[in-house]
Design brief:
The protein is built from 13 helices and four strands. The chain is α+β, with helices and mostly antiparallel strands. The chain has a four-stranded antiparallel β-sheet. Helix 1 runs parallel beside helix 2, helix 3 packs across helix 7 and helix 4 runs antiparallel to helix 8. The radius of gyration is 21 Å and the shape is globular. It starts with 26 loop residues before the first helix and ends in a 6-residue tail after the last helix. The structure holds flavin mononucleotide (FMN). Flavin mononucleotide (FMN) binds next to strand 3.
Length: 301
Amino acid sequence: MSDPVAPDPTPSDPAAPEPAASEPITSTAIQQALAERFGEELTVNEELPGLAVLARIAGHRSHRRFQSRPIDPDLLQLLCACALSAPSKSDLQQADIVIVRETAIRQTIVDTIPEMPWIMDAPVFLVFVGNGAQLPMMSKRRDKPFPNDHLDAFFNAAVDGAIVMTTFIQAATAVGLGICPISSVRDYPRIIAKALNLPPRTVPIAGLCVGWPEQPGEITPRLSLSTTVIENRYGERDLIGEIEAYDRRRAALRPYRRQRRVERWGEASFYGWSQDKARQYAEPTRTDFGAFVREQGFRLD
Ligand SMILES: Cc1cc2nc3c(=O)[nH]c(=O)nc-3n(C[C@H](O)[C@H](O)[C@H](O)COP(=O)(O)O)c2cc1C
C-alpha cells in the first residue's frame, strides 16, 4: 500500500480516550489533547466560545474499526450537504462525493486494496472526487475561450475535493461518527475510475470510511508547532534536529509496533517516524498517477 501504514491500524490505547459526550468539555481537555499531539502546553481561554468544537478538532484520530450499526441515509445526506457547503475556489464548486452503496463496487475497491479491510467493514464508504469538467463545458456553451487549461485547473479541483472531504470529516465527527481517509484509491486509479464510471476531467482525491467507532482510538503526535507554524517567512532552522526530536517524542508516546519491510532494510534498533516514512517512500508508488490524470483529460503543464 502506498498510503502510510498507520502505526497500528487497530489502536487500542485505553490511556487516551476521547472525552465521553457526557463529560464537560473544558479547556483542560483541549490542552491535554494538544500537549499529547505537539508536546507543548498551549494557553486556552476558558471563556472562548466553541470550546466543544475545538476539543473535537484537537482530539482528532482516524478510526479503522466500526460498529455494524448503519448510518441513517438522511444523516448521510445531511453530512454531504454540510460538506458541500465548504468554501470553493472562485465559487467553481469542483468537488463531488460518490456514495458507494453497491456491494460489487465496494468489493472491487477492497480487492484492489486488500490490506485495508476497514474499507469493507465501514458502514459507509465514500469517494471524494475533484471535478474539473463543468468549467470548460460552460466556457464552450457560453461561446468563450478557455485559455486556462493547465496545472492550476487540476490543482483547483483537487483542492476543492480535499476541502470538501475535510469539511465532511468535521461534520461527521460532530455527530459522533469516526472516519478514515483512504488515498490508496489512487494506487490503481484506472480500476477505481472504471468501477465508479468516472467521467473525463474528474479524479478521485481520496476514499473515506465512515462509521460509528468501535474503540475510542488514539491521538497521533504531530511535528512540533515550531516546525510547522512559520512566523512571517521561512528562515534558517535545524529541520533534521527537529525531526529527530519528534521521532523521539513520538516513539516515547506511540512507538511503531512493526517495522516496515524488515526483509529489505533489516531491524532498526531505533525505529521512528522518519525511518518509517523513508522506508515507505523507498518503494515506487503511484508512478503512473500523472499519466492517469492526463488520460482523464487534465493538462498538467
Ligand atoms: C489524504 C489522506 C489519505 C489517507 N489514506 C489512508 C489510507 O489509504 N489508509 C489508511 O489506513 N489511512 C489513511 N489515512 C489516514 C492516515 O494514516 C492518518 O491520518 C495518519 O496516520 C495520522 O493519524 P490520525 O489521523 O489518527 O491523526 C489518510 C489520511 C489522509 C489525510
